[in-house]
Amino acid sequence: MPARRTGSPRGRRLPVLWVAMAGVLAALAGLALGPRWLGGDVRGSDAVGRHRADGPGTLSVATWNACGVRGWNCEGTGSAEDKRARIEALVRESGAGVVLLQEMCSGDLASVRTSLGGEWHSLFRPYTASGKDHGTATTRCEGDGRGTAGYGMLSAAPLGEVTDVSLPQPAAGMRRSILCAVEQSRSVRICTTHLNPRRNGGGSVPVELRADQLRALVGAAGRRTVFGGDLNTAPPKPGEGGPWARVDGPYSVYRECDQSAAGGPGETHRGGYKIDYLFTDLSRQECSVLRSPASDHWALLMRVATG
Predict the structure, then answer these.
(1) Which of 108, 155, 194, 294: disulfide with 82, CB 3.0–4.6 Å?
(2) Which fold has domain 38-305?
(3) What pTM, to 2 d.p., does this model score?
(4) Cβ atoms within 10 Å of 232's Cβ, excluding its own
């Protein structure tokens, strides 16, 4: 219904001014209450970029260890449906255009890709171990149709130039490599891996081997890149030796998602420590840690400018 025209022209302008002032106040409130970007982290489910898709000059990449194998200390971290819903939320609510995944089940990944739509693409690699008669064995995920356990990535754009880069391996335990591909709409090289934990197959992984694995990951990354995953390695500390100290590049040539965070990098594991990373040589715009009860890890999300 048309507005009634009563009173003087000055009187008709007052509501417009109040609306304008309200808009300014709302914007200021959003700045005050909104998530903190580089130098901070966001402690809430999908607080960043709600219902936002990347524009042609940006790309949002998330990494998440889904804790999909119940026997790998993942009891009580949610059902397969919970984990699939979490990945969909990273895409539909947090705006991730690429999602790197570890401890993922192949059937769950295929289900999520189908749910997201035909334009989505995925890559998957299973964890392997020495099997009978010198063959290789994989780990089945519990539950009908969930497939095997592994690592991989989802992408809203086609993935090209797919390569598998070898990792130095311990004598026993799960074996894995580095998975790389080019996100073709923005020509960004994406690499992900899941490095061996400190104890692997009943034995400890020496610092030298962990440094060699990190060096292989950095060597695979190249330029115009985002790379990372669950590296099972704490961040470097000033004056402290360790695997990072033996590797050139990660914290100089590249920048980590929350590298400039006040007070040090934020934890990505509910145990209170950081072992999940995203590195890039592109300009970082946002970095967030997104908590979820569907895993013992929290998702790390970084938005970069791609030019």
Answers:
(1) 294
(2) Deoxyribonuclease I; Chain A (3.60.10)
(3) 0.82
(4) 20
